[in-house]
Queue: 4 jobs
Job 1
Amino acid sequence: MKNLNQRIQKEETLVGTFLSLGDSVVSEMIGQAGFDFVIIDLEHGVGNEQSTLQQLQAMEAGTAAAVVRVEGFERQRVNRVLDMGAEGIMFPRISTMEEAKKAVAALYYPPDGVRGVAKLVRASGYGQDFNQYLARQKQDIVGIIQVETKEILECLDEVATLDGVDVLFVGPMDLSMALGIFGQFDHPIFVDALKSSARAARQAGKACGILLPTPAYLPAWHEMGYRFFTGGGDLGFVSAGAANMVKSLKGFIQG
């Protein structure tokens, strides 16, 4: 564990990125780049559970904590990646209080939740550290609820108070789409939603996060109260790097 939850509780401003390629070597390099955390993306990424395990193993060499975005809030899906050693779970497209309750329940063993018990898993040192892992589950495992639907805006205050919700995380693409103003991140309706998310998190003593469309948005959203940021991702880094190299080389050829 890289103590991500402790850093969140201390109200540090943290920066991370998404891993969508499912590649352990790329993940290892990005894990050593200086990010505070990464989010391995099983919702939109091309990886699967096997590649997730390999990425988690590769991430051990770096300083970034590894969170996994699962496809939904089903207990079995959450349990598998936690057993692999994920430090936190991001839940996409949560819309209701009931869904949020099911999501956070999947994070913890009974009586705090409904996580299935298996001692011989990577997260607990294949059984060697299970008692310590169990005792520290609520201090160490990070629960992130995404704010991406119109419906969740109606119950943000309640969701934020749930034990197990450590971060409310705005997905700007999905949320702006749901609000009928896709990509208009300065639109008053979207800004109001941002402020509501930050206020709900602050009142509950939780962190608020967001995916940055560009780094230029960080100062204003930090001023608004956001402290948990992601910028870019492995797919974009590779794509942009390749495009820049082609542009540079052809610039010399074409004079």
Job 2
Amino acid sequence: MTNILTLTMNPALDVFLEVPLVKPAGKLRCTKPVYIPGGGGINVSRAIRRLGGTSTALFPAGGSIGNHVAALLARESIATNMIPIAEETREDVNVLETESRLEYRFIVPGPKLGVDEWQRVLRAIRTASPRPDYLVASGSLPPGVPVDFYERLAALSLERGFRLIIDTSGEPLRHTGGKGTFLLKPNVGELMTARDDDAVSDPEVARAAQALVEAGRCEVAVVSAGAGGALVADRDGTRHIPAPVVAIGSRVGAGDSMVAAIVLGLVNGSSIDEAVMFGVAAGSAAVMTHRHELCRLDDTKRLLHEVRDLCSGTGCRLPEAVRPPIEEAIPAFAEH
């Protein structure tokens, strides 16, 4: 079985609350809190589970909050490798104002990691047995971790021979990539901000994605564009994978659901285009769910057919027929 390892350097305990109206002063009477394990790689592992796949979630964490995150993942039957750290894991708060349906997300920086702590994460990857076939590194970097940390992962991927997928933003994205990075997955805003480019036209985004590949920063760039679907760039050029129209429940977790489906598609031996179609379907499925939920398997399977139909209509390049259709493999994933 292909082994998927996800990495979350800055995990969080996400607390979801609902309140009729957010206003200053006075007491805001909220609903009972819902606690969800969070952070990019952890969400990818959770979405992989919902799509019927398996993975191991690797993350540094500390204190009672870190233990709570690990316990919540165990309840979801997700294998974990928690690297203990001295400081307490962060706790983020998400508030839904029910009268307006506006969401407020309060995100804190996270604990500061010492040199030995983040180096222990690298050692855990280097010595992982069995060796991962895919490593999905997703999310922000906490204080204390060098901004080129993901670049160091690329060197490890060359050393150990796994495929590295990275989804990050800001300064880490500027310093990410190079030989050993298989796939980068920024969204449109993250990609253009990293380039200090205010232009967000389709041609500019396509050129920026292709530039990542031509500069050797990755073999494949997948740029997510929300309702616009995704753009794929590799040595064969760029193409657009459109998204189906869906009712919006919440945009939380859409990007992580997309990454989860992409890696599952690749594990199944599908072409990159077919895998990204699966990813767009999963991202769209996540948008349909309520707040803190991720993609659902039935929605993803149904939307995958719509994405394929849209691709046929727009002329985006379809994968060769020799690749197995992803929906044929989904029941096999679900049996595990």
Job 3
Amino acid sequence: MSRKVFENSAVLIVDADKSLGVLFDYLKGYGFEVLVAHDGETVLTIAETAKPDIILLDVKIPDLDGFEVCRRLKASKTTEDIPVIFMTSLANTVDKVRGFALGAVDYVTKPIQAEEVFARVRTHLTIQRLQRNLEEKNVRLEREIAEREILIAELDAFAHTVAHDLKNPLGVTINYAQLLRGYYDKMSLEDLNQSLEMIVRNGQKMANIINELLLLASIRKEEVDLRPIDMARTVSEARSRLTFLIEEHQAELIIPDEWPVALGYGPWVEEIWANYVSNAIKYGGRPPRVELGATSRADGMIQFWVRDNGDGLSVEEQTRLFVPFSRLDQARAKGHGLGLSIVHRIVERLSGAVSVESGGRPGEGSIFSFLLQADNGAGTNHDLREANHHAAGGNL
């Protein structure tokens, strides 16, 4: 066996008569860090601070006997798992039983034989490591089981929500398709165009739901690096996705010219803006007036927000927003549930937070926000675009 096999292990020898120099050298030869104490109080202090892997404890020591020291070691959360092997000249069964009852794992009888002590130490350290490995595996297994239970609950809730949200646009699409199939030759050009428009519109709604499902899968699996985001470009992309909705509702969008630079992942942050702005349009005033902005905070975070001019949300409705997927069936507050649950998951993955402020009175609207880490080395998105422009040789 390698003489350094226990290089990362520490053993505390409690030697009342200071006669165990041979054992000290023998264990040092196998790579142990060997600590020594000669009285009970010192044992307790060293055990609490150094946390040795195993203790060789003389029964007869000054101030506290070995049995009392063992009792105190096992009564402390810090030291209760350290194996204790008694070293004693006492060979009667009563003393051995007493030691085991106090939590000792073994006995060696004086005079000490270094080879025997080493064999017992090695055995109990091996048992200890196997127990720790088993405990770690059990903890991992329990965590995996809990995570799977959450995933199953989320999948069930998400499936019901997707089915609910797909049912209406799918039904409308089928109805208009059947209308065209049966009467297209008798319909005016205006009616034909209207029917086709409804098919396209509801097809887009279904495509959006499917895209959200795919996005959810990517959020769960994909590992991303947080990088400076060109927020102006990200907001512009989100706005382009909502062109039809903006035109349909004649919505006014107020967007700042400059944005502070935050760390994140562009495609996910674009999804946040798309959800927030679409909800602000759908549930805002008539016509909707939607304002976007950002506020830098002293804690190194940036709060990005969307303010609408709708009726606002009651306190009860606010509590049903941003819910976990397992509670989506409860989150039908004005239809926000699915999208905002995805937003919540995205922002959590980006180490941020979400919130909503609403007075619940007509016209006051609501403010939906999310926090991202500020890029402390950057200025505004104008600076970021300039840097990208120069890095690309001015060909953006």
Job 4
Amino acid sequence: MGVVERFLLFLQLVIDKNQVNMNYILKAVLVLLVLSVSPNLWAQSTKWRDIHKVKRHETIFGIARSYDLTIEELLDANPEMKEKGYELKKGSEIFIPYSKTSTTQPTPAKPSKPTTTAKGIDVVKVGIMLPFLDNSTEGKRMIEYYRGVRAALDSLGHMGIKTQVNLWNLNKDSVVTNVLKHNPQIANQDVIFGPLYTNQVHPLADFCHKHGARLVIPFSTTATDVNSNPNIFQIYQDEDELSARSRGAFVERFSHSHRPIFINCNNPSDGKYTFTRSLREYLESKNIQAEITDINTPLREFAKHFSQTQPNVVILNSAAYKPLERVFEKLDSLKNIDPSLIISTYGYNEWFIYQPYLEKDYFKYNVHIPTTFYYSRKSARTEVFEKLFEKDYGQKMNPDGLPRMGIMGFDHTMYFVLGLSHYGEKYVGNEQQNSEYKPLQTRLEFKKLKDGGYQNNNFQVIRFKTDGSVDSLTY
């Protein structure tokens, strides 16, 4: 058990045994507390030292003094403070700029390689380039991701690992080359997380390659620079690869033991027709007979497609909630007629969103979900993280968003900063180098592409077993 796992387990014990001693709990959970981020972040090329959450009775003068700033510097970083009638309120989130006179202000420097010791990088410089200015759903998801990053950096600090964090706003309309041109400190980062938008990957990737920084692409599934750029670590695989691996996992697990039954849900808009068609074609090429029926087929005809002598596996050509709910209702009717039927279901990532509402059906019908992540709501480590996140921000992570952005930011930062602090320039992101940390949500294990960078190789099938347990089948 690594140091992080031991600490999280300790926190769980603290919470369980000290329900009434909140001051003690708060002291214990400092390792995971996150600095707040406002969705109203300022200028596109601004770089901030920190984000401050206003406490009761604090004043603009007192905050500026505590950060060794002038009033003008604080106001320039937060223009809304200059507006008529502005009042500083408890819970407000304001930006803390670098002072123009303070010795803590970083000065532009020529790009340089990371300073390393025998074990790795002494102070890991972390850059975040995401759309913080965007007040849309995407922007709010990025705020949550950043909070997870800060939680990880705080935890790493208490583990004795030194970091410096800088963030730059990169909205959908931002011109990446302009941001890079006006922010020379970007060249000095050891690792950069971003961008969100695929069209911004190439110029940022070229820049990182030129200056020796590692670029972690946390979201894009279609950027192809990882195939040729050795400085890239890409978290997600593209849709074609995921579809192929999902098809392969199905064939390995079901093709020789189950009767495949494809159910047409008459919902072509969600794009699953392509997957089911390719799976059917593959089964046909192997002379594996599959049944095809429709969600609207009368029950008597519907039942004829199911085998009473071998297990059945159901595949829907839709990932939407309503068709899935209707199929489960239809399967319930079948089971009422013939309880001996054995039925499994092969699904999609989107089904994790519906788990709180359909979980009993997932277990009843042995649902299998091919995925690159799994958010376990009942995991002790997850529960601890969520309690601390809610305690710090007064709100939970977005309950409808999967994967959870806050946990994702925490996982990515812990994984890469730990690795870089230990291995420096020799860091390649494989599981052996990162055995000290096991991600909460997204398994990370990178493989080197022949002429390029590193692609996360994780793929698993989450199985909801009929005995009420959940396990992960790794492929």
